[in-house]
Amino acid sequence: MRHLLTTLMLTLATALPALAQPAPRPFDAEAANGLQRLVEPEISPDGRWVVYGLKTADVEKDKFCTDLWLAPTAAGGTPRRLTFSCEVAGKPHWIGPAGEAIAFLAARGGDDERKKGAQLWQLPVAAAGEAEKLTAIPGGIEDYALSPDGRRAALVVMDEAPDPEAIAGWKRKTAFPIVIDAFHFKQDREGYLEGRRKHLQLLELDGRQLRVLTQGEYDEAAPAWSPDGRRLAFLSNRAPERDRTEATGLFVMDAQPGAAARQLATLTTDNDDAHPAWSPDGRFIALATGDDVKWSAYQQWRVGVYDTASGAGRVLGSLDRGWQPQLAWTPDGSGVVGVVDDDRHSQLARIALADGRVERLSGPGSAAQASVARDGRIAYLAGAWSQPAELQLLEPGAATPRPLTTHHAAWRAGLVLSVGREFSARSADGTEVHGLLALPPGARLPLPTVLLIHGGPNGQDTHDLGPRGVMRERLVAAGYAVLQVNYRGSSGRGRAFQRAIFGDWGHLEVQDLHAAVDWAVAQGIADPARLGVGGWSYGGLLTDYLIATDARFKAAVSGAGSGNQLGMFGVDQYAVQYEREMGAPWAQRERWLKVSYPFFKADRIRTPTLFLGGEKDFNVPIAGGEQMYLALKMLGVPTQLVVYPGQFHGLSLPSYQRDWEARFIAWMDRHLGTRPQQTSATK
């Protein structure tokens, strides 16, 4: 008996480590729905806490939910959830220098309350505190900024819509007709632009008194308080023909109703995430700044610094890499902290005010959204190839950051993720092209391979597990090798690389993408008989270009794309870019036909192609997919069109995102053949 018990104990002891290992799980729809996203972190003024949003998928309600969380910066601390309504719109900010409460935007309450749009709320940091609603503004609040003392807020509010029930003395049961007289007259999600303006209003948090700060025929955006709380900086396009240019002005005004606004500078910074950042002494404003408006679609954002007294401005440093638009000053005012995009990576960095010297503060991977406390602590988001972004803290003098959250630890347990590596290829004209390769672990090569193309084009594929990483992992889990290529027009490789495709779409990008596929075939990675291609937005456009150029792709998925750019004139939201970059179709007919070759040479296409898009997309309207679909249908090429009802350029429902991924994979499976069996051998 003793021998039997001993044997049994030894057997259990041997088995326990194996039992402790979670069973392998594929990256399927369930895994995709379980992926959470941390957003908008802000460190408290004293550096003790970080508030952030956590975005999750509610599968039963088929919606994405965002709630606020609070993470202590002290070692060993545990984050806790602050809100539970699933209705937070975002933008959490600390109230006052002590940070005893947090402000945020949310559309909460009954249906009537939610229809008013996002309102401003405040929430005590104390565990038992309840959120208090501060505003009830019809149409809601677009953005806001809190004064340093926490007593006032500058709100960005759109003009109230006219009452549809009263016009010309009689009642209406329908909305007003939309009357348009602007050059730029439509925008994705906003719809047709009706001439309503966004202005600044001043809210006293204690008495709830609301007063108008700006009014007139201009929009104001991105308010930011001076350190002494006396002035506001904001952005506004007040050019004579403001709807035909992105030449945005940086303005400063006293934070009082009726005060005049003084323009400090005219610059190109139409990025929605760009906000003026005051230096600690109030002498300067840092702002993400672009080059001439000619390059607005291919901007490489740099750190601009503007003197608040004279308006004199300069761009810091000569680094030929772009900065993400969220910038923050160091506590001593000696430099600016942000994130630099650099060749498949994005890194936390500091740039010196004195000489423009750039110091990298984080290693390889994907960093974003840095926030700086008074004591110099920096909170930011950081992820990697197989690690979704988590909150990190970099303390003054520390060589490496320290993680503050582990929201994805349980999600990652047992999850089978791809094996990633970087690669380079040589394009037809000798240009070196960089990309990322994802493989199923233990796969036998060659594999059916999908060229997954990012949108933009001004963007880059990086070492991260964000939205594009989900499609990559879904494809790898289905047995495919995946190529992600930063073709010319992408960011992260310098200005010349970004601007190379100006007015010449579907040319150099196609060469670069083909070079990557050629490399994968030559390396024995990609099976040349089973090649697929797909992407969304500009990735959808490039998919159309590729299949009209080369018949070697046996399956294609074009999401929110178009092959007839001439047919997009006046239909999409890019009137300003077209006028500047392409010229008028009647004056530049050959140029427009050249960039529309997928449609006008559709008879060369042999690739079975799936087209998808949002019904309400004004960015790349569904007409772009409909035209290509009907062309291939007429030509007898296998094709299908999928329209997502009520959706804009990006799919906003979990069910639609999973549907797009599933249809993408099913289309590849159907036309590229049976998936190969996985083995332990890797060539």
CATH level-two architecture of the domain at 417-672: 3-Layer(aba) Sandwich
Mean pLDDT: 91
Structural class: alpha+beta
Which stretches are poorly predicted, pLDDT < 50 over at least 5 residues? 1-19, 676-683
Instruction: Let me know the number of strands.
Output: 39
CA-CA gap between termini: 51 Å
Rg computed from alpha carbons, rounded to a whole number of angstroms: 26 Å
Reported by name, the CATH topology of the domain at 417-672 is Rossmann fold
Global geometry: globular
Major sheet strand order: 32-33-35-34-36-37-38-39
* Fraction in beta strands: 25-35%
Helix content: 10-25%
CATH superfamily of the domain at 417-672: Alpha/Beta hydrolase fold, catalytic domain
Structural write-up:
Residues 1-20 form the signal peptide. It holds the Pfam family PD40. This is S9 family peptidase. The protein is α+β, with helices and mostly antiparallel strands and 683 residues long. It has a domain at 417-672: Rossmann fold (3-Layer(aba) Sandwich), CATH 3.40.50.1820. Helix content is 19%, strand content 33%. It has 14 helices and 39 strands. The chain has an eight-stranded mixed beta sheet, sandwiched between helices. Strands 23, 24, 25, 26 and 27 form a five-stranded antiparallel beta sheet that branches. Strands 1-2-3-4 form a four-stranded antiparallel beta sheet, with no helix packed on it. Helix 7 packs across helix 8. The protein starts with a helix and ends in an 11-residue tail after the last helix. Residues 1-19 and 676-683 have low confidence and may be disordered.
